[in-house]
Design a protein that fits this description.
459 residues, alpha+beta, Outer membrane lipoprotein wza fold like, wza like fold, 3 domains, five-stranded mixed sheet, rod-shaped
Length: 459
């Protein structure tokens, strides 16, 4: 029996020794020089984070198609023509036929920006002049402003199309302020309307300068409009009148009443009003003038509708093309056919693998560790040994590796992980804790201690 016990002990010792060649050896970071190269361990501190982040790196950018906008596809709402004018009166040429029929008093409200208006963005200058925003108005210097286009928008470099039609100056200024802030451009500016082209009144007949006159920020009254047109030029005010065509209705103010009553001179005109000063009490002439204005308005509106339809169709095709290019890139990204920068996660993280560095920005250790990695494995990971292994790109240090060491046993050190920027081909490594290392070693040795003697006796 004693010989058998000695044999069994010898066999057990032999099994233990034979198992030593296969005992688990865990990966670890060791400073020094080896066949693989020189390894330098540097503790991660607020100061060393700044040093590590100095490594040159320019993140890859998304294709230009993701930065392009098709623009605004909202079509302008054409102004309706209203009902047709009433049939001209055929009353005789006596003074009694010139009845007073003024248009109703209306409040046009504050001026709203419309198609054709020219607006200027300006900032105060110490030289006492208006200076353009740096980089923002460079493309418009020759025009000294932005013309509101048919879709109601202006196109500002580095900002894009901004729809301001239908807004007051204050409302448009607030909208532009928001868009400039979103585009990270200094929003110190003021908005001014340099040319009023969207709201106009036509004046014809017996006036000094027949034509089309704009309505500005200040409402235009009948007396001011006639004065701007060179005043009334008639020989007999008893048979002369001012006729106003508005929204399909004809209104009449005898010239004698207009001069006698100041409230009639203060009547406010609206956009697209037509004013005709008639001297011979013949409504045919006024009727022909109004018909001409209506036809001109119809032609203008038809041209705008056609332009808006073409713009909408072009924007639709443009959006479809951009969407297709973006979808093609997304599919190539899913198939791993796009050149990317990667960081690799190893050791005691919940999920080992490859982390893609994002487009257009720099990722941090916290991004990789808590996104793809799922964080440190709390059962097996050693929070005191978190490393970022970075190979030197200096040819004079070929094979050298810097191991940036972060100890997060104190959770107050975690913000350093959010500030430590990663670089392509970095290795994020979390070492195992001592208990896990010992347990894995025992798990490999124990089967050898049991099976080796038994196999020896069986033989």
């Amino acid at each position: 029996m004693r010989r058998i016990s000695v044999a069994l002990s010898a066999l057990a010792l032999a099994g233990l020794m034979s198992g030593c060649s296969t005992v688990y050896r865990s990966p670890a970071v060791k400073a020094g020089v080896s066949d693989a190269g020189k390894v330098r361990v540097v503790a991660v501190t607020p100061e060393t984070v700044l040093v590590a982040n100095r490594a040159a790196y320019q993140p890859k950018t998304l294709p230009a198609v993701f930065q392009i906008s098709a623009g605004s596809g909202a079509g302008a709402s054409p102004r309706g023509l209203g009902r047709l004018p009433d049939a001209p009166s055929t009353q005789g040429g006596s003074r009694q036929g010139l009845r007073l029929d003024p248009p109703p008093a209306v409040d046009p409200g504050p001026y709203t920006i419309g198609t054709g208006d020219v607006v200027v963005l300006s900032t105060p200058s110490t030289q006492g002049t208006v200076a353009e925003l740096s980089g923002l108005l460079a493309a418009q210097n020759s025009r000294n402003g932005y013309t509101v286009q048919d879709d109601g928008s202006i196109n500002i470099p580095d900002v894009g199309r901004v729809r301001i039609a239908g807004l007051t100056v204050d409302e448009a200024e607030a909208l532009l302020f928001q868009r400039l802030v979103e585009s990270q451009i200094d929003p110190t500016f003021s908005l001014e309307i340099s040319e009023f082209n969207s709201r106009r009144v036509s004046i014809g007949g017996a006036v000094g300068q027949p034509g089309v006159y704009p309505i500005t920020l200040t409402p235009l009254t009948l007396g001011e409009a006639l004065a701007a047109a060179g005043s009334v030029s008639v020989a007999d005010i008893d048979t002369s009148s001012v006729r106003i065509y508005r929204d399909g209705a004809m209104y009449q103010i005898p010239l004698e009443d207009l001069y006698a009553r100041s409230e009639l001179q203060r009547l406010k005109l609206l956009a697209d009003d037509s004013v005709f000063v008639d001297t011979d009490y013949d409504l045919g002439r006024a009727e022909r003038y109004f018909a001409q204005q209506i036809q001109l308005q119809q032609t203008t509106l038809a041209g705008r509708r056609a332009a808006i339809d073409e713009l909408t169709a072009a924007l639709t095709l443009r959006r479809a093309d951009l969407d297709e290019q973006r979808e093609n890139f997304s599919q190539a990204l899913e198939l791993d056919a796009v050149d990317r920068d990667y960081v690799y996660l190893s050791g005691e993280v919940r999920t080992q693998g490859r982390y893609s560095l994002p487009f257009g920005r720099k990722a941090t250790l916290a991004d990789a560790l808590f996104d793809t990695g799922g964080g440190i494995a709390k059962e097996t990971g050693d929070a005191s040994e978190v490393y970022v292994l970075r190979a030197s790109d200096d040819i004079r240090e070929f094979g050298a590796v810097t191991a940036w060491h972060l100890d997060v046993r104190n959770a107050a050190h975690l913000p350093l992980a959010a500030r430590f920027e990663l670089r392509p081909d970095d290795i994020v490594f979390v070492a195992e804790n001592p208990v896990t290392r010992w347990g894995r070693t025992i798990n490999q040795i124990t089967p050898s201690l049991i099976t080796a003697p038994i196999n020896a006796v069986a033989d």
